Amino acid sequence: MTTDNTHAAIFVAHGLTKVYRMGEVEVHALRGIDLTLNRGELVVLLGPSGSGKSTLLNILGGLDAPTGGEVRYLDHMLTGASESELTLFRREHVGFVFQFYNLIPSLTARENVAAVTEISTSPMHPEDALGLVGLGNRLDHFPAQLSGGEQQRVAIARAVAKNPAVLLCDEPTGALDSATGVVVLEVLEKVNRELGTLTVLITHNAGIADMADRVIRLSDGQIAEIRANPAKKAARELSW
Amino acid sequence: MKSLDRKLFRDLWHMRGQVLAIAAVIMGGVATMVMSLSTYDSLVTTRDRFYSEYRFAEVFASLKRAPETLAERLAALPGVERLETRVRAGVKLEVEGFDDPITGLLLSLPDVGEARLNGLYIKRGRTVQPWSTDEVVLSDTFADAHGFQPGGTLAAIINGKRKKLTVVGVAVSPEYVYQIAPGAMFPDFKRYGVLWMGRHALAAAYDMEGAFNQVSLTLARDAHEQDVIDRVDVVLATYGGTGAYGRKNQFSNRFLTEELKQLQTMATIFPAIFLGVAAFLLNVVLSRLIALQREQIAILKAFGYSYVAIGAHFVKLVLLMTVLGVAAGVALGAWFGQGLSNVYTETTFRFPCLDYGLNAGVIVVAFGVSALAAVSGTLVSVMRAARLRPAEGMRPEMPEAYRATLIERIGLQRWFAAPTRMILRHIERRPLKSLLTVLGIACACGLMMVGNYQKGAIDFMVDVQFRQASREDLALAFIEPTSGRALHELAALPGVDFVEGFRDVPAILRFGHYHHRAAVFGIQPQGQLHRSLDSKLQPVALQPGGVVLTDHLATNILHVKPGDMLTVEVLEGSRPVRQVPVLGITRQYLGVSAYMQQDSLNALMREGSTVSGAYLAVQPGSEAELYAKLHKRPRVLGMVANAAAIQSFYATIGEFILFYTLVSTLLAGAIGFGVVYNSARITLSERGRELASLRVLGFTRGEIAYILLGELALLTLAAIPIGFLVGVGLVGILVVAFQSELYRLPLVLTPENYAMGASVVIVSALLSGLLLWLRLGRLDLVAVLKTRE
Ligand SMILES: Nc1ncnc2c1ncn2[C@@H]1O[C@H](COP(=O)(O)OP(=O)(O)O)[C@@H](O)[C@H]1O
Ligand SMILES: [Mg+2]
Fold it and tell me: Rounded to two decimals, what is the model's pTM?
């Protein structure tokens, strides 16, 4: 394993499996995943619906526990960690972005970001985080007063404002039209470039994969392919 | 099963906590109603049966003395069906091992055969043998209080002569379902007893041979009661009659009627309040529940379900909860009702036996009222949801529009962190919903205060009556009106600190077409022991020449005000009829009476200084000796010791108070918990997504609990003062509804009442908080991100 700083492993997963039991039926969502994710990378997780992308992302983010195998984050073992250890892990190291934004409707854009920075150790100013996503002029708007794309950008600002080591995005453009989607991807790209945050981006849209450093393709709970993408494109050039 | 029905049961199971809480609220309302109505029904049935089977008379009259031959003349009066004369003697009783004064009432039984009217139900032993000389039957209250069994003995002082009596039976009479000594405020089974003995024996001891001093009769089918009363009065006038009266004025029956009236009031008002609150809560809770199902309703509509089908689905959902609540309420109410009926028949009313029965009608009404409340609440929200176009309903709801709260707009926001702002904005965002929640919680607080109000009110009444108005230690009555000089002899007895004479005469008071039978009391203008109180409960001096009336008597019965002229028809002696000015009004919670200066009353009666009895202040420690001395005086008829009366009163009502406190605490608790838990639980459903998102972002359980429970705490705290107002209002309704001639409840609430009201709310909130805390631990973070509710 390399100790080169730019290729330091952030996540190392071995033999991850996840089985959902629903009465008689067992659904094997993950069937043995081995994976290493490195500092500063932008990784796109590709695969058809139901292939286990969200399950994998949730396990990496400490929202869910695998049925078998193990995941290590730097020198923390995530598998077997307690609920409060996982809460602390999310609080300090992980930023999430979801398909449906999940903003708090009763808080303004600035306050949605502040809600997170208030509980982190070395956060950005909420204003700076919103500036980063191009919403410096919408600080005091409530979610209901923002468009879908704007809400998603607030969600990204909220995710990055605590300076997380990892940014996990589950179909961040899924609920957006493609023009708005590009704007959101540009923001993610910028965050990844400027802050060097390991960014994992789920999509079932192969077009988006062109902006990645590496593309991981999942199929039926297994890794079908890991491909480096030397000809990385800017988000602005993408279309789908 | 149709899939919609499957959804129904799954929804019910999913919301089981809330279902139980809603059912608890309905249960509270229904249980109160069933308890009161079934107790009322049972007592009425039992009373009616007792009255008819034991031939309770319809008109009663007392007189000084008339020859038995007069009975025929009376029986021949038009309108009289059946008539019976009796000898009736006020006596003093002696029971071995019991030193307090005991007053007794001896009534004659026919020497041969059963009583034609007012028959006795013999509970134990037998009735007196024909022509027996010393056999008596005891009323069961008195017998039970002293543990008398057939074969026991006691003594009676009849007309100053001591007579030994043998107990042969214990009985209950329709005439004495409720027993209270004349002049006493409360029943005292140890110190007052009714006894029956053979006519011959009693007449011999009481100098009434060949004569009678009491007559009872029943009316012929079409007879008019007042006409018969008037005819009887005419005949008895020359024999010292004190005025015939109907059942309405027969003391035991009057009290029973009043008590039943109050029970009926309770059976209407309490359930109305409880069910009203329950209905209101159901409405609030269900409309929020259904708002949560908005998307599902849209989808059902998209599939082609009709309004009616969707409406029916939710109505079924709600009716199932209602059935659960009503069933539990009927069961609990029947149990309480049985308990309450037992308390009644053990402490106050004596019947041969009580037929407790639960009327099917009561159950139907309970279900109808609850179902109506529930369904109306539901339909409104279903209609609102169903009116949405399907596409609109299915679109993920736009984030709700929030804005900065008033507190923030006036610049206080820097004091609050984001979670606190969320609480404040959420409350301000839905002011109506927050208000309704606050009102619901306040109702629980108010109900609790009502339930616990009685004890404080009774303490207050007793305090006013015995420590402000009737401050004597002992009240004694002479056998007949006596010269005021007798008071000097009493004052000279050892142990007597102070003596105040009083005169009382029975009279009919008339004003316009209103009239009332009451005692006119002649008391001392500057009395130390017996005083008249003004509306602020301060003692006031009586002015000469007129009457002062109890507030209830003046305002609600006779409709007179100070300055009016009242007609007083005295029913004693020469039976004068006089016009007397009303001088003032006195505040009194127990009974109703008219007061005059004793001198003025003596003048009205055209008599010299005359007293009917005396109030005594007694030195502590010398009671026993004094009682013994007074007991031996032939002119002293009866004595009532206040301390003993109060004690026995508390012993009697203690059970009632305990019962009501228990029941109301349980019911108010159920309602309080139902409201608080439901509103918190629904808030959790409404905001679960938001809270789960915060958890994903790294907030701890404690931090999100603060947002959820902080809101609950804030609403709960706001509800407490409003609950106090609700409590005062409900007690006010109760006070007005329970006004009767026998007593009026004072509008007083003790700190204890307030504390009870607040604590039911706080305990409910804490319990709900705990349950929610446990739920927050099970919040599914992943699921909430995947699906839109
Ligand atoms: N909570 C769950 N219970 C049962 N099965 C689940 C659950 N969550 C996901 N699955 C199943 O696991 C598989 C992978 O799901 P997911 O990771 O969400 O797929 P993706 O995000 O790639 O669309 C799917 O077959 C899905 O049905
Ligand atoms: Mg997914």
Answer: 0.73
